[in-house]
Amino acid sequence: MVKAYNMKTRKIIYFLSVLLFLFSFRGYSRGPSDRSTPVTLPSREALANMTEEQKQALVEQMNERVEYIKSMDKSALTKDERKELRTELKGMRKESRQVSGVYISVGALIIIILLLILII
Q1: Whole-prediction pTM value?
Q2: Directed axis angle between helix 79-100 and helix 52-71, to 10°?
Q3: DSSP for the chain?
Q4: For residues 109 and 116, what is the distance between their CA atoms, to the nearest angstrom?
Q5: Per-residue pLDDT tens for 54-92?
């Protein structure tokens, strides 16, 4: 048995279904995510004045951008765009070394200790 709806009920059902449809795509309307935009690197003076939390946030932002670049389909990019991505990655690598400091590997540490023992 088919229930017949009056015109007012049909309008309400139609209106609610359109609203449901429009609000289901709300998350896609924000535009590009923060990962797709290049990271603006601060100058050395600004980096020296940053707190540890700001430095950590910058490193996290750079890591997200690197992961986004790694996941990109680079075959569709032009030669200039690929070159621009490479220079951006090189800049971020240099900047991350300045932010996070210099780390010495275990092998290098052993060699330094052995050289100090030989010299003394």
Answers
A1: 0.47
A2: 150
A3: -PPPPPHHHHHHHHHHHHHHHHHHTGGGGG-S-GGGSPPPPPPHHHHHT--HHHHHHHHHHHHHHHHHHHHS-GGGS-HHHHHHHHHHHHHHHHHHHHHH-----HHHHHHHHHHHHHH-
A4: 11
A5: 878 887 888 888 888 888 888 888 899 889 888 888 888
Report in angstroms the alpha-carbon separations of 113 from 25, 33, 101, 104: 61, 47, 21, 12
By CB atoms closer than 10 A (0-12, 13-18, 19+), residue 58 is buried
Cβ-Cβ contacts under 8 Å for 35 (sequence gap 6 or more): 64, 65, 67, 68
Q: Are 100 and 52 in contact (CB under 8 A)?
A: no
- In which residue are the tokens 């700001």 written? 54
Contact 62, 92 (CB under 8 A): yes
